[in-house]
Amino acid sequence: MRAFANQGNRARRPRVVIVGGGFGGLYAAKGLKGAPVAITLLDRNNHHLFQPLLYQVATAGLSPEQIAAPIRSILSRQQNAEVVMAEVVGVDTQRQRVLTDRGEIPYDILVLATGSRHSYFGHEEWERFAPGLKEITDAMDVRQRILTAFEMAEVEESAEARERWLTFVLVGGGPTGVEMAGQIAEMARFTLVRDFRHIDSRSARIVLVEAGPRILPSFHPELSAAATRFLAHNGVEVRTGVKVTHIDQEGVVLETSLPATHGQGEERIYSHTVIWSAGNRASPAARWVGAPTDRMGRAKVAPDLSVPGHPEIFIIGDAAYFEQDGKPLPAVAPTAIQMGTYVAKVIRARVEGRPQPPTFRYFDKGDLATVGRHFAVFCRERGGGFPRVRLKGFIAWALWLSVHIYFLIGFANRLLVMLNWARAYFTYGRGARLIIRGVVCGQHRPSEEESAPVCR
Amino acid sequence: MRAFANQGNRARRPRVVIVGGGFGGLYAAKGLKGAPVAITLLDRNNHHLFQPLLYQVATAGLSPEQIAAPIRSILSRQQNAEVVMAEVVGVDTQRQRVLTDRGEIPYDILVLATGSRHSYFGHEEWERFAPGLKEITDAMDVRQRILTAFEMAEVEESAEARERWLTFVLVGGGPTGVEMAGQIAEMARFTLVRDFRHIDSRSARIVLVEAGPRILPSFHPELSAAATRFLAHNGVEVRTGVKVTHIDQEGVVLETSLPATHGQGEERIYSHTVIWSAGNRASPAARWVGAPTDRMGRAKVAPDLSVPGHPEIFIIGDAAYFEQDGKPLPAVAPTAIQMGTYVAKVIRARVEGRPQPPTFRYFDKGDLATVGRHFAVFCRERGGGFPRVRLKGFIAWALWLSVHIYFLIGFANRLLVMLNWARAYFTYGRGARLIIRGVVCGQHRPSEEESAPVCR
Q1: Residue B328 has pLDDT above 80, yes or no
Q2: Given a cut of 50, is residue B415 above it in pLDDT?
Q3: Chain A residues with CB-CB distance to B56 below 8 A
Q4: Best CATH choice for the domain B2-44+86-118+280-351 from the list 3.40.50.300, 3.20.20.140, 3.50.50.60, 1.20.1250.20
Q5: Is the pLDDT at B45 greater than 70, yes or no?
Q6: In this predicted structure, what is the pLDDT of residue B443?
Q7: What is the Cα–Cα distance from B449 to B456, expressed in whole angstroms?
Q8: With contacts defined as CB-CB under 8 Å, which chain A residues touch B447?
Q9: From what superkingdom does this record's organism come (chains A, B) (predicted)?
Q10: What is d(CA A203, CA A157) in angstroms, rounded to the nearest whole number?
């Protein structure tokens, strides 16, 4: 592999290999700008993805191109960094080499920022019926399913079958589930309302299912309650304390775990469109390097984010488990960004022979989730010299809007996204409402006439 | 099927079924706004595509969402029209029914606007090595191939293999081939120039192959020559009088048909990225209804665009063959638009019991093709009371820009496309430079380590 051959020419510089071009990996690379190292950033995709807005792609509000940018172009002016598109399959910690589908890449220092995938709690067979949202392909898949469901309902003769196409189930009441529910509701109530002749898109049933006692569990209960009220007001059925015990092409089976609320026993919701946002599982980074893990497969890292016994290997972002003040850090973009920036400092100090910076400490800027039009929740507990803040409604929504536009990487994308949103805001339109035939593979379309292509 | 059941309710209104939501079908539907008919527009995709800009999606300048709009939303306010997403498989002209993968749809009047696909002149096996550009999936496929080729070249050790990845062959010197060649050249010379560490993207070899004696054969020879000079100046090898006799995963084999220019015999160009724009073949519309065809499969239609012997069936756009003043009409968007508009008038007159308008006559507004930055050609022969006009260079380019932005359907898309172009213009950037794993099926990647998913 050529990257290897060429790295030899820069041999005197320590070789830093970063695996993953998400927030963690990208900020680690950017943090090493100008440092006397030779960086190779590996990713199986050619783009960095602004994952917090992925649900907007899934609900046809934005195009993939608006929330993703080629990693190459982000790092094009950073002379000590090269980008290689390859899939990592393992790490040889003895010989200090990353094993990829395109050959081996030697490292002196390794940063693993490989993120997480969905976890179906041992029911991986559910994935084809209930995809989650991690990558652009996931979002495209979900978008096709949602739009196709309305198309199918429009031409369906039987009222029962129509209802199944117009029922949308979101599994998991975290920010993604809440955002998706809010977006689908808005789409059904406004965007699509004039488009069909045989169905009333407003009759769509949108069910948000959460096993725990409340949605948005990482927020204050008061904010969870406000979000629940907002969703209910906008036509979303919020079902808490309800566990999903089975998913198939007919829909989901629920088990009421809190007898008080809905009675005991099983309930089936018939739906062809189920979306999963209930659980994550770390990528196999910890396994590659033999690091100890928590039950979600995240590597338990040392206070400087290195792997115990391997000071030359760091694991950051969603792939890492790190406790602070007795609590694990949340798996969100700011955690990955701060970890990436910190690791860059550690590496820079090490190669320049300076003392290592103090151990990693996460600075919590607060937790923010948007629920729908003009409505978001924000919550920041006391600490770091800041008072407690809890916001809900329009102010939190305006905050959410500015934060997301500001942080959207791809820079020049900002204006375009803003304009797209402005248009969507005033017209309730969604410019990205395309169903692209053949593009989404593994799509599940239980129609009799045709079988869907499966290529995953 | 529900569309059928429901149409019964509007039984007294003549049922007009339009197959195809391209320019022809859409303008036919829009032309019938307010007419006392019940329109059903069928398309296998949910979107109308602004095909003249598809090459921009293929070369990562625009996102698919920017040049396509849901047919439903375009027709949402037209109460006499409904849209059904279904694939037509045939027509029963006896029983007056359209046969689709979702059931049968009865018609009183049928408009077939099903367009064309590529023709490989009997070598359909070439398609997997040399895709063409008709639908969004095609453009996404081509985009992936182009971007992936640079990625592969970057990590390739052998100079020979690298060269093959950096060689791009465009087969066919019509507007699409010329536009693609110009765009790839611009990408290689400007956009990507800082992105790679091991290759110089400017060293890419871009070959435009045309069997005839000159590129842009529908334009005046003077304009063809100007376009050739412009392309050559920008690093594109223009090879005219050269026939492609074979395509495989190693590249193309050329046969020099004009001994004078390049000597006789065979020549192989090694390339992993070959794009086809050499020939079209009409969709099977003519076959469905038993209409006479030309050798490209286009239906030879009557002067009112109906099928001889079937006054209730019209065939328009690329699927139709129509001679005017002894010459066949070009297969371009304006032809389809004018035919759609005309057919709507004929139908309206017929259902309102008025005399049919005079036979169809195409009004030629001129022929326009963009070659690259600041350079387009425009040509309009004398006729219709207008003088002859031939333009090349910046003025034609400015004209091209305004015409395309103006006609871009999707209305609100205009501002976004303009901004995207403005950004690309000033920065040479391409916001849509994403390689989406798993999204493009049937992609050909002749690497040893992995076999590409194939789902077509």
Answers
A1: yes
A2: yes
A3: none
A4: 3.50.50.60
A5: yes
A6: 32
A7: 22
A8: 102
A9: Bacteria
A10: 16
Reported as a single tens digit per residue, the pLDDT across A385-443 is: 777 888 888 888 888 877 777 766 544 455 566 566 666 566 565 556 666 554 433 33
Give the torsion sign (CA, B8, B11, B13, B14): positive
CATH architecture designation of domain B124-278: 3-Layer(bba) Sandwich (3.50)
A407 backbone φψ class: left, alpha, beta (φ>0; ψ -120 to 50): alpha
For B57, which residue in chain A has the nearest alpha carbon?
Answer: A65
Residue pair A184/A146 in contact (Cβ under 8 Å)? The answer is yes
Which CATH architecture does the domain made up of A2-118+280-351 adopt?
3-Layer(bba) Sandwich (3.50)
* Nearest CB to A2 within list B157, B413, B439: B157
Cβ-based contacts of A66 with chain B (< 8 Å): 63, 431
What is residue B256's predicted lDDT score, i.e. its pLDDT?
73
Residues of A in contact with B435 (CB under 8 A): 45-47, 85
Q: Which residues of A121-152 are buried (b: 16+ CB within 10 A; e: fewer)?
A: eeeeebbebbbbbbbbbbbbbbbbbbbbbbbb
3 state SS of A16: strand
For chain A, give the number of residues: 456
Q: Which residue of B has its CA nearest to A417?
A: B416
Q: Which of A135, A156, A179, A210 is catalytic?
A: A179
For the ranges A163-167, A346-350, A418-422, B103-107, which has the lowest average pLDDT? A418-422
Would you call B129 helix, strand, or coil by DSSP?
A: coil
Contact A86 B155 (CB under 8 A): yes
Query: What residue of A is the nearest CA neighbor of B101?
Result: A449
* Rounded (10°) CA dihedral B60, B62, B64, B70: -170
Task: State in Å, rounded, how far the first CA of chain A is from the last one.
Answer: 27
What ranges do the domains of chain A cover?
A: 2-118+280-351, 124-278
Interface test with A, best of B195, B196, B415, B430 (most A CBs within 10 A): B195
Give the distance from residue A146's alpha carbon to the nearest chain B alpha carbon, in angstroms. Answer: 13
Give, as one character, the DSSP assignment of residue A172. Answer: -
Residue A175 Cα, gap to closest chain B Cα (Å): 25
**A267 catalytic, yes or no?**
no
**pTM here?**
0.84
Measured in angstroms, the CA of B256 and the nearest CA of chain A are apart by 36
Instruction: Give the SS3 label for residue A235.
Output: coil
Burial A241-280 (b: 16+ CB within 10 A, else e): bbbbeebeeebbebebbeeeeeeeeeeebebbbbbbbbbb
Per-residue pLDDT tens over the stretch B441-451: 333 333 333 33
Burial of B26 (0-12, 13-18, 19+ CB in 10 A): buried
Cα atoms found within 13 Å of the Cα of residue A168, Cβ hemisphere only: 33
Nearest alpha-carbon partner for B62 in B417, B426, B423: B417
- Asked whether the beta carbons of residue A436 and residue B137 sit closer than 8 angstroms, the reply is yes
The rounded Cα B423 to chain-centroid distance in angstroms is 25
pLDDT-wise least confident of B123-137, B219-233, B434-448: B434-448
* Cβ-Cβ contacts under 8 Å, B82 against chain A: 197-198
- Our separate counts of H helices and E strands in chain B read 13, 27
Q: What percent of chain A has pLDDT over 90?
A: 60
Point out the residue among B2, B73, B194 whose CB comes nearest to the CB of A76: B194
Binned at pLDDT 50, 70 and 90, residue A445 comes out as very low
Q: Do domains B2-44+86-118+280-351 and B124-278 have the same CATH topology?
A: yes
Which of A2, A79, A141 is most worth mutating to test chain B (most B CB atoms within 10 A of its CB)? A2
